[in-house]
Design goal:
Elements (H helix, E strand, L loop, with lengths): L5 E5 L2 H8 L6 H14 L4 E4 L6 H15 L5 E5 L2 H6 L4 E4 L6 H5 L7 E6 L13 E4 L16 H12 L4 E4 L7 H6 L4 E4 L11 H17 L6
Parallel strand pairs: 1-2, 1-8, 2-3, 3-4, 4-5, 5-6, 6-7, 7-8
Length: 227
């Protein structure tokens, strides 16, 4: 995942349905269209994060997204639920800060499984050793995680990147094209986001998401790193 910016789309079917003015019973099909756009744009990672779904419904959605991403450069990661990820033949797992550490997960999953891990400070990096990628945040206040006084900020992101060494770090929280330059200068390898990948309210959903991803990558990749 070196070279150009690494992008990770995090799903939120409720926000997605609200954005396009659709009922929640259509949400799974909307997420599928969103991921089709992400795949077309070459988004590297998709994190399935739908904590309120039952195990049965989560498996069904994970299987649907796994079908879309299979054979592409996009890897599907299931948030926290290793069992669901394995049953759905996903490409990996995203571990929360309170999930079992990466070495424990490695003993349960196939070779080549991608493990990403959430970190909220440089002190948390040590516990995340063994992950393929770290997701650091919350960087800025967002609708999904309003400001509560524990934002990481760009200075905190820089410290996480330094503590991570060769492990790529993606910034999450308040990600936009306008914040991309500062994130890159902090040393991050890319970004993870919900809102930045939400489509325009009207028009083709997949095409809109594809365009959002292209613009976000362009903003990040064209930013100059700090000397």
């Amino acid at each position: 995942m070196a070279g150009r910016a690494t992008l990770c789309l995090i799903t939120d079917r409720r926000r997605l349905a609200g954005r396009v003015g659709a009922s929640l019973d259509r949400a799974s099909s909307l997420v599928a269209r969103q991921i089709e756009g992400a795949v077309a744009a070459g988004v590297e990672l998709v994190q399935l994060r739908e904590r309120d779904l039952s195990a049965r419904d989560l498996v069904a959605l994970a299987r649907l997204l796994a079908t879309i991403t299979h054979g592409t450069t996009t890897r599907l990661l299931v948030n926290d639920r290793i069992d669901v990820a394995l049953v759905a033949a996903a490409g990996g797992s995203h571990l929360r800060a309170d999930s079992p550490p990466p070495p424990t997960i490695r003993a349960l999953v196939p070779s080549g499984w991608v493990v990403s891990c959430a970190v909220h400070s440089e002190a948390a990096v040590q516990r995340a050793r063994g992950a393929d990628v770290l997701v650091a945040g919350t960087l800025f206040s967002t609708p999904s995680k309003p400001h509560d006084g524990t934002l990481l900020g760009l200075d905190g992101l820089t410290r996480v990147v330094q503590a991570a060494g060769a492990v790529p770090v993606l910034a999450v929280g308040g990600i936009t094209a306008a914040t991309a330059a500062g994130i890159k200068r902090a040393g991050a390898a890319g970004v993870a986001a919900i809102g930045a990948f939400l489509p325009e309210p009207a028009g083709d959903l997949a095409g809109s998401v594809q365009q959002q991803a292209i613009l976000l990558r362009l903003a990040f990749d064209s930013a100059d790193r700090a000397p």
